[in-house]
TrEMBL record:
EC number: 6.3.2.6
Pfam families associated with the record: SAICAR_synt (PF01259)
Family: Belongs to the SAICAR synthetase family.
Reactions catalysed: 5-amino-1-(5-phospho-D-ribosyl)imidazole-4-carboxylate + L-aspartate + ATP = (2S)-2-[5-amino-1-(5-phospho-beta-D-ribosyl)imidazole-4-carboxamido]succinate + ADP + phosphate + 2 H(+)
GO molecular function: ATP binding; phosphoribosylaminoimidazolesuccinocarboxamide synthase activity
Domain SAICAR synthetase/ADE2 N-terminal: 27-271
The protein's name in its UniProt record: Phosphoribosylaminoimidazole-succinocarboxamide synthase
Domain of life of the organism encoding this protein: Bacteria
Length: 320
């Protein structure tokens, strides 16, 4: 991993967006620029940093971490469910299969925590005990392990809009997905999460919660899409200090985007109003955090590509 000084030097080179002619129709998500053409999608993962459904700034090398981590996890879980990965032609790029999106985010949680409006802790703290159609027991404390892993699905909102909660009865009543596919989605979601928890446990990390997205391929077969077990889509805690910090009422040491959410919350921002500007040292801290989680999970050293003109490098690699 590189030094704080080197990260700060590379902040101006962070990848904000990419415009490439001849790749097909371009769409843009919170973090990715996506090109659609001939049954494939080109996923370009930028360094845009999102939270509270807003882009809050740019974290150098973040896109590279998300890309490489997704590849790692896709390879580790192919036996559970097929995924959309075809190739990785660039540190920030995945070529994936085109499929029909199922508009449900399969959020799965092993612990009761969170600071956002869709978190179960926020509702539990207010006195709710039936959340996402699931009954939770009395006496739970923030950051405590749940009796069992639970699925708390949300809508798949367009960029700039908020995801909304879904209960199983709503999904079936509104016929968002075929009941047989929904049953398979639930089974696969729990299996993927359990696999992730086991691998992370060996690395000294707790996989707290995550989200999966699914689609249907041209034969109507369920397929895992988007990203997988990245610090953007997952919450990671350090296993070694978890129990002691929980006992003392302290927040767990985290290796994920929650560090960023807490920083913005502490600076008076939760998605509305003027966005506070992140200091250079905090940007470097977040960049280091992303690289560290890659190294801990994979057991491999993360060596970022230091190309200054990232956009040109991506264009060159895609035009080979």
């Amino acid at each position: 991993m590189i030094s704080t000084k080197k990260i700060i030097e590379n902040i101006p080179n962070a990848l904000k967006t990419v415009n490439i002619s001849g790749l097909g129709k371009k769409t843009q998500g919170k973090v990715r620029d996506i090109y659609i053409s001939k049954g494939k999608r080109v996923f370009i993962t930028t360094d845009r940093q999102s939270a509270f459904d807003k882009v809050l700034g740019y974290i150098p090398f973040k896109g590279q971490v998300l890309t490489r981590l997704s590849v790692f996890w896709f390879e580790k879980t192919r036996d559970i469910v097929a995924n959309h990965l075809i190739s990785m032609p660039d540190p920030n790029v995945l070529i994936v299969k085109e499929c029909k999106l199922i508009p449900i985010e399969m959020v799965v949680r092993g612990y009761i925590t969170g600071v956002t409006d869709t978190s179960i802790w926020g509702s539990y703290e207010k006195g709710e005990r039936v959340i996402y159609g699931i009954k939770f027991p009395e006496g739970l404390k923030k950051n405590q392990k749940l009796p069992e892993n639970v699925i708390t699905p949300t809508t798949k909102a367009d960029f700039g809009l908020h995801d909304e909660r879904l209960a199983e009865k709503d999904i079936l009543k509104k016929k968002i997905v075929d009941p047989k596919i929904w049953k398979q989605m639930k089974k696969v979601t729990l299996a993927l999460f359990e696999r992730g928890q086991k691998i992370c446990d060996k690395a000294g990390i707790i996989l707290v919660d995550t989200k999966y997205e699914f689609g249907l391929d041209d034969k109507g077969k369920l397929i895992l899409i988007d990203e997988m077990h990245t610090p953007d889509s997952s919450r990671y805690w350090i296993k070694k200090s978890y129990k002691d910090r929980l006992k003392k009422g302290l927040e767990p040491e985290s290796y994920d985007k929650e560090t960023l959410r807490i920083w913005f919350k502490d600076h008076g921002y939760k998605g509305e109003g003027k966005i506070p500007k992140m200091p250079l040292k905090f940007i470097a801290k977040m960049s280091s955090l992303y690289m560290e989680i890659y190294e801990k999970i994979t057991g491999k050293k993360f060596t970022p590509d230091l190309t200054k003109n990232v956009s040109k490098r991506i264009k060159d690699n895609l035009m080979v």
